[in-house]
Amino acid sequence: MIGPDFDHFCALILERSGLVLGPEKAYLLRGRLDPIARSEGLADVPALLAIIRKTAAEPLISKCVEALATHESSFFRDGAPFEALKTLVFPALIAKRGVGQKLRFWCAACSSGQEPYSLAIALHEMAGMAALRDVEILATDFSETILTKARKGVYSDFEVRRGLSPERQQRWFERDGDGWRVSAQLRSMVTFRHHNLLRGASGLGLFDVIFCRNVLIYFDPNRKRFVLEELAKALAPDGALLLGSAETILGLTENIVQAPGARGLYQKASVLRASAVG
Ligand SMILES: C[S@@+](CC[C@H](N)C(=O)[O-])C[C@H]1O[C@@H](n2cnc3c(N)ncnc32)[C@H](O)[C@@H]1O
User: Fold this and answer.
1) Residues enclosing ligand 1, CB less than 6 A?
2) DSSP code of 218?
3) Contact in structure between 31 and 40 (CB atoms under 8 Å)
4) What average pLDDT does the chain have?
């Protein structure tokens, strides 16, 4: 499979999604692209890569980009960011923002929706605080297929049990066939929108809190740097950025720094510079 068609395909995927592929990932390509090759009536994955190089055909390329993305997610994933939100981030924001001032949250690379819906639940549970506030949660991903699932908000038994207490399940979900549907109240708090992190964040406005977890790990250093700089621009001066536990900003940007008090919590470097001068 390794050869010019493979190299061309890897470059295409890198440009479209930031996913770094190489010969060591040939097994991944085989597993994920075989169903597409078959559905196109092709003999195998090498034949698919050859067609893609020859014809640059859409929507075939988009299908491959989608198939190669990892959508793994769960409710209240990793716990710590939601704890940091409750104990550090939200109280600080409430203290600084006036009543009536909208609080804007962005879940960048939200996958099937568990992260923004967890955020919506957490905001409700911060007794009294969320109720008083005008809150907007924007949830974006570059996969239309996964956004369709997220908008629907229906999860299997396994998915709801993974991360949700029985109390939360009871309070925020209702039976829908074999699955569980997120309550209309939570769904109304979240706006899902298509967005590719590699195209920048201009036009989305400023956010008080950005969750961007478990997606930078797939990018090469240049793309990580670009995305982090864009997130810094989209963050309010005193806003908070939450990255995944396996993600680091080390050597990538000087505009974001680790915030005290919690792992995975970051803030704009300009806040520190301003407080050092003041
Ligand atoms: C592993 S999931 C993480 C979901 C969630 N943030 C979490 O931590 O549970 C990664 C998501 O990133 C999305 N993604 C990958 N590359 C992207 C890009 N360039 N722009 C936007 N989303 C991207 C994938 O479609 C996938 O849904």
Assistant:
1) 17-18, 69-73, 77, 109-111, 115, 141-143, 146, 196-198, 213-215, 244
2) G
3) no
4) 92
Question: Candidates 142, 148, 223: which one to mutate for ligand 1, based on the most atoms within 8 Å of Cβ?
Answer: 142
Common-topology check for domains 4-68 and 80-277? no
Active site residues: 32, 141
Instruction: Please check whether residue 150 is in contact with residue 138, taking contact to mean a CB–CB distance below 8 angstroms.
Output: no
Beta strand 173-176 pairing with 135-141: unpaired
> Class of 80-277 per CATH?
alpha beta
Site of tokens 């536990």: 245
Q: Where are the domains of the chain?
A: 4-68, 80-277
Give the CATH number of domain 4-68: 1.10.155.10
Paired tokens of 132: 């008083």
At 205 the three-state DSSP class reads: coil
Tens of pLDDT, residue by residue over 192-216, are: 999 999 999 999 999 999 999 999 9
pTM recorded for the entire structure: 0.93
**Cα-to-centroid distance, 43 and ligand 1 (Å):** 30
- Reference 264, options 118, 112, 85; nearest CA is 85
Instruction: Report the C-alpha gap between 266 and 78 in whole angstroms.
Output: 16
- Can you tell me the distance from the alpha carbon of 274 to that of 202, in angstroms, rounded to the nearest whole number? 24
